[in-house]
Amino acid sequence: MADRYTEEELAEFNRRMLAHPFHEYCGIELLSQDAGSAICLIRVDDNTDGGGGYLHGGILYAAFDMAAFFAVMPLVERGHWVRTHAATFNLIRAARRGPPIELRARVDYAGRRTVFVRVEARIQGESEDTAPVATGSITKSIVPTSPVK
Predict the structure, then answer these.
(1) Are 1 and 64 in contact (CB under 8 A)?
(2) Tens-place pLDDT, residues 3-61
(3) Which candidate in 3, 51, 71, 128 could, as Cys together with 38 as Cys, close a disulfide (CB 3.0–4.6 Å)?
(4) Boundaries of every domain in the chain
């Protein structure tokens, strides 16, 4: 069995990622995290409005990347980290100010060095039958950690 990060270590990684000035500015929240899945939340507000009262697509992409990070990190062996090396992102409909947008990330495949994650954004509280705001696939590479200098 691989030596994985503890819940306490993951909580500290999550705290640091969410405290990044850009992530804080965007208001990205982590609602839940399990090995291979995560749920995040983002709101359309003054910081994330791309104009006309709708969520900025680039900020949504950043939130997708964060959700994928949170889903993957519990699977990563101690002494390793993840980097995004490929991503596709499909905006399906606009998200306006109002209910928050929920991002659900799920690992489709986790290999020794590469992890494929699917992310879907939906208006919180809407039926699964309603079209999502966006969908995406993010590929993460597992790399050794670099010493901090």
Answers:
(1) no
(2) 999 999 999 999 999 999 999 999 999 999 999 999 999 999 999 999 999 999 999 99
(3) 71
(4) 7-144
Three-state SS string over the chain comes to: CCCECCHHHHHHHHHHHHCCHHHHHHCCEEEEEECCEEEEEECCCCCCEEECCEECHHHHHHHHHHHHHHHHHHHCECCEEEEEEEEEEEECCCCECCCCEEEEEEEEEECCCEEEEEEEEEECCCCCCCCCCEEEEEEEEEEECCCCC
Query: With respect to CATH, is domain 7-144 assigned 3.10.129.10?
Result: yes
